[in-house]
UniProtKB/TrEMBL annotation:
<dbReference type="InterPro" id="IPR025431">
    <property type="entry name" value="YhdB-like"/>
</dbReference>
<protein>
    <recommendedName>
        <fullName>YhdB-like protein</fullName>
    </recommendedName>
</protein>
<dbReference type="Pfam" id="PF14148">
    <property type="entry name" value="YhdB"/>
</dbReference>
Length: 81
């Protein structure tokens, strides 16, 4: 897990930097993060239903925060072992 990818995903999503989010989607090694970004960007550009776009956005944020906390915990365990 690369903690920087999750930090970037949160940063780009909250600042509405969709181009950078797309680049992150292609470059990240985390398939789930890539899929969440893809689903959100597709909903943002092609869905007419705002609730679907909002749902995908919050799913992306939720996963990025979860994975970020998990990666931070693994880094802390590695430091203290």
């Amino acid at each position: 897990m690369n903690k920087a990818d999750y930090d970037r995903a949160l940063h780009y999503a909250k600042l509405a930097q969709w181009d950078h989010l797309l680049i992150l989607m292609v470059r990240t090694k985390d398939d789930i993060l890539s899929k969440k970004i893809e689903q959100f960007l597709h909903a943002y550009h092609f869905q007419y239903d705002y609730t679907r776009m909002e749902y995908c956005f919050y799913e992306l944020l939720r996963y990025a925060e979860y994975a970020n906390e998990k990666a931070a915990g693994e880094q802390n365990e590695a430091i203290f072992v």
